[in-house]
Structures are given as C-alpha cells and as structure tokens.
Design the sequence.
C-alpha cells in the first residue's frame, strides 16, 4: 500500500506541476482557434489533436486540469471550515444546540446533494462570465457539501469534550475561545484533515458531473468536467481514442486522491 | 412497535416538509431566479413578456408560496409546471416508474455484486479475488456518474446497470471489512476450530452477526443510487425524474422543482427509515 501511495502522490504531483505550468507547457492558449484544422487528429503540432472549434486539446486539458485541481481543494477547504464551525459548535455546546444542528445536517443529507447542486446551479443567471461561473461552481460545492463532514466533526468534538484532558482543562479554568483554540482544535486536526481529503475527490467528481451536463464552468474556460461534457456528442457521432484522454486523466486523478485519502482516514 | 412506526412516519413527513421548504428557498434566493429565459424570446409580445414577469414575481415570497403550495398539495394538487405546461402530478406519474425501476435494478445489482465479491474474497482467502474486488471497487469509486454514462452510451449498454457499478464499491468495501471483523470473533473462531464447514460458519455464525450493520447500509445505498441516476438519466436520455429535474432546473420551474424535491426526499428518507427500523427490530429480536 505504501508503494501505491508513493505512485499516487507522484502522479498527483506531476499532474499538479503540469497544471500549474500550463501557461508554459501548453502549445497554445485554451481558447486559441486553428480554423484550418478543425477536429484534427493528433500531430506534431497538436499532440492530442484539436476539437470541433479548432482548439488544441492538450492545451485545454492542461488548463482544465489546473482549474479542477486548484479549485476542488479550495471548495473542500470551505466545506471543511464550515463543517468545523457548525459541527464544532454543536459538539461543544451539546444539548438542544446539538440536536437542532443535527436536524439541519439531516435535512441537508436527506436531499441527494447532486440534485440540490444541479438545481441551485441551474437557476444562476445566464449571462455569467466564464470566470464567475468557475467561482460560483466551486463556491456552491463548498457551501453545499459540508453536512456529512459536520456530523463527523460534531461526534469528534463531543468525544473530546468528554475526555479526561478536557475535564482537567475546564477545571483549570480554560473555557470559551481559549479552550477551543488550545485544546479542541489541535486535537481535531486529524479529523478535519481527513474530511478535507475525503472532500477533494468528491468535489472533483461533482464538478465533472455538473460539467458533463453543461452546468459547470462556462465556455471558453475548460475544466475536467466541461471537457468530459464535450465528449457527449463525440461519443454518439464519431469517437476517436484521443478524445478520451481527459476522461482517463479525470479517473486517474480521482483514483490517486482516493489512494492517498486512505492514509488520512487511517490517521484520523 | 406501532409507536416506532408512527414516529418514523412523522419523521418522514417532517423532513419532507422541511426539505421542500429548504429546496424552494435555495432556488428562490439563487440570484438568477427572477429571470426567465422566455423573456429573451423576441417573437413574444410585450404583454406576454410582462405576464411572464408577473408570474415570476407571484412566487417571490417563498413562505407564502410554500404555504399555498402545501394547501393545494393536501388536496392532491401539486401545481402546474411552467415550462412543460402540464400538471406536476401527471409528470411525476409518467416519469417516476422509470426511475423506480432503474433504482431497483441499481440497488439490487449493487448488493448482489458487492456481497458476492466480498464473500468470495473472504471465503476463498485468495489474493486474486481480493485484488479483483479492490481493483473493481477502486476503479468505479473514482468514476463520476457522467463518465460512466458516456461509456455506457458509447458501448450501447443498458443505462439502468450503470448506477449499480457506482454503488457497489461502497457495499463491497463495507461488507468486506465487516466479514473480516466477523470472522475474527471468538465464537466464529471456535466454530471453525470445531470443524464446521465454511458455508455453515457463514450462514449460522457470520451473517446473523453482521446483518444489523449491513441493513444500516441499505438506506445509504438507495441515496447513492438516486444521486448516480440523475446525471445518467440526463446523458443517456432516460425519461425519469432525473431528466425531469434537469429540465425543471433549466427552465427555473419552481413548482416542478419543489415537487421533485419532495419526491426525491421521500424516496431517500423512506429507505433510510426502513433501514433503521429493520435494524432496530433485528437487534431487539436478538436481545
């Protein structure tokens, strides 16, 4: 398993490096059109060919990977922060505060969250700029994806509150924010880190699902989800092997996250 | 027992009401709700556009809208879909059977596949079986539903089998861990040491121990299958409620969206409640 994690980590580092250096590695801009070679097969000039609009597929893949790889962790950080705040408060105060919070959590978990996401994403304005669509897509993921993590954090906080060191700390006069900062948060770090890593692949998958339905990042900006969405017509009309590279990259990236995630789950 | 059932039904009703309100509120406060795409249609007259705008404004107060909606709902009226121009009840009646059929296929197949692979891996103790199980579950747990839908579309496979492949990894991993823990229990070790056959140990000693925990996963598997079905129905063009939700979301159809939220929540919460009740009954029977 250690070897698998090393391989997964290396692949992710390579993908991240490629995505971050997209500006230098990509043979062209993600929106640059080569009108003389529409839907061209791979060649020395275009290693993965071009799409229907004559845009270089490799360039779009590199820039798309950058958006998904950078913003999914950002959304996961938002969701984890919300979960830490809401779950932490519920576990810290207990009693009716915890019961009311868990009811809200149950409510969020009762509605399949992709359904909620599709619905809320679809009612956003039609005239969004591509940059706004990126921000909104990942902010929505962050703001709607906290519920499951909040339940875990709440349970973790409750357990900590009943532990001996917490009793001792409170008996020594620690309370409120200081108790939270000095005693609870450092001990919850493992749980929060695990929740963060669990959320990253979940959000990449959610963005891919949204993108495939045309509700993710707007054109001409690419993301792994929107690149998969572009395949929809190609699959029905004239599929070529090189068109499936974004799909393979997406699955490999998520698999690597899942492999690394196991380590954090064990640690937590 | 009846008290438990009554409380469970009350809980389902309460969560449905709150979920409908939550869904409606989220849709209502989304910044693009006040705008209707039909307003961009240049062939419509100024009066028609004004009427569309007025209809949209009528739903502006979400609390008022929801109370009115629930009042009509108690009389069996779920309102009129603005985009499809049909009663929501009729739309749901047309689309729900396809989704329920696909849901049943997905959950059934996922459980058969997950349990079979986990049991085969544990009973044979073969590394190859474990490798196959881990490999398959690892692959499908990393595959977005939309990607699998595209693959099924390309290979012309029946789309109802796709969600099963996305749900089975959770079942396999959970059951595999449970089986491993159950086989390490003292009474199972004793039974094996006394020479009980593998099948006998599984049926009489292992399954009864793990059944309550397995049942707890049933509700979750239904929710997972429902989530997976949404993009699959859209991409594979299956006329179910996933596709309907997609159409409603695109048309900003609040009435249809609230109706769908209620139905989807009902399915998900009912499965979880059934799971909990069955588990509690089983545990009480054991005690």
Sequence:
């Amino acid at each position: 398993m250690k070897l698998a994690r090393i391989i997964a980590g290396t692949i992710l580092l390579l993908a991240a490096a490629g995505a971050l250096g997209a500006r230098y590695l990509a043979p062209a801009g993600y929106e640059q059109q080569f009108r003389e070679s529409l839907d061209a097969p791979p060649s020395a000039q275009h290693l993965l060919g071009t799409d229907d609009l004559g845009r270089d597929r490799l360039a779009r893949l590199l820039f798309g990977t950058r958006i998904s790889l950078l913003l999914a962790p950002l959304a996961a950080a938002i969701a984890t922060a919300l979960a830490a705040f809401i779950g932490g408060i519920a576990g810290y105060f207990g009693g009716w505060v915890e019961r009311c919070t868990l009811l809200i959590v149950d409510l969020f978990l009762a509605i399949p969250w992709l359904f909620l996401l599709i619905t809320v994403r679809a009612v956003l304005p039609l005239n969004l700029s591509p940059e706004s669509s990126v921000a909104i897509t990942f902010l929505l993921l962050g703001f709607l994806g906290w519920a499951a993590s909040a339940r875990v954090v709440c349970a973790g906080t409750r357990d900590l509150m009943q532990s001996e060191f917490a009793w001792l700390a409170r008996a020594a006069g620690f309370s409120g924010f200081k108790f939270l900062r000095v005693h609870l948060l450092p001990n919850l770090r493992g749980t929060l880190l695990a929740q963060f890593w669990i959320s990253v692949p979940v959000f990449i998958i959610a963005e891919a699902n949204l993108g495939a339905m045309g509700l993710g990042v707007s054109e001409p900006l690419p993301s792994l989800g929107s690149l998969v969405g572009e395949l929809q017509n190609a699959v029905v009309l004239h599929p070529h092997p090189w068109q499936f590279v974004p799909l393979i990259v997406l699955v490999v990236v998520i698999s690597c996250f899942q492999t690394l995630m196991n380590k954090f789950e064990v640690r937590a | 027992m009846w008290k438990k059932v009554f409380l469970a039904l009350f809980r389902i009703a309460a969560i449905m009401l709150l979920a409908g309100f939550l869904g409606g509120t989220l849709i209502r406060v989304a910044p693009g709700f006040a705008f209707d795409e039909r307003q961009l249609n240049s062939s419509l007259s100024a009066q028609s556009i004004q009427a569309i705008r007025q209809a949209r404004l009528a739903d502006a107060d979400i609390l008022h809208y929801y109370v009115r909606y629930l009042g009509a709902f108690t009389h069996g009226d779920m309102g009129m879909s603005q985009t499809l121009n049909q009663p929501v009840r009729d739309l749901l009646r047309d689309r729900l059977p396809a989704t329920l059929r696909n849901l049943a296929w997905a959950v059934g197949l996922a459980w058969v596949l997950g349990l079979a692979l986990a049991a085969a891996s544990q009973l044979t103790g073969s590394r190859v079986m474990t490798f196959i199980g881990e490999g398959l579950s690892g692959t499908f747990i990393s595959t977005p539903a939309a990607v699998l839908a595209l693959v099924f579309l390309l290979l012309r496979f029946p789309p109802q089998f796709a969600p099963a492949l996305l749900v089975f990894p959770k079942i396999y991993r959970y059951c595999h861990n449970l089986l491993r823990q159950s086989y390490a229990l003292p009474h199972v070790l004793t039974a094996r040491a006394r020479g009980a056959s593998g099948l006998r140990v599984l049926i009489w000693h292992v399954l009864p121990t793990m059944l309550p925990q397995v049942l707890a996963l049933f509700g979750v598997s239904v929710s997972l299958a429902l989530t997976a079905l949404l993009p699959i129905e859209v991409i594979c063009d299956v006329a179910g409620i996933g596709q309907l939700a997609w159409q409603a979301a695109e048309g900003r159809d609040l009435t249809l969206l609230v109706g769908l939220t209620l139905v989807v929540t009902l399915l998900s919460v009912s499965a979880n409640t059934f799971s909990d009740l069955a588990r509690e009954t089983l545990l009480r029977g054991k005690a």
Chain A touches chain B at residues 106-108, 110-116, 118-126, 201, 205, 208-209, 211-213, 215, 225, 228-229, 231-232, 235-236, 239, 247, 250-251, 254-255, 257-259 (CB under 8 Å).
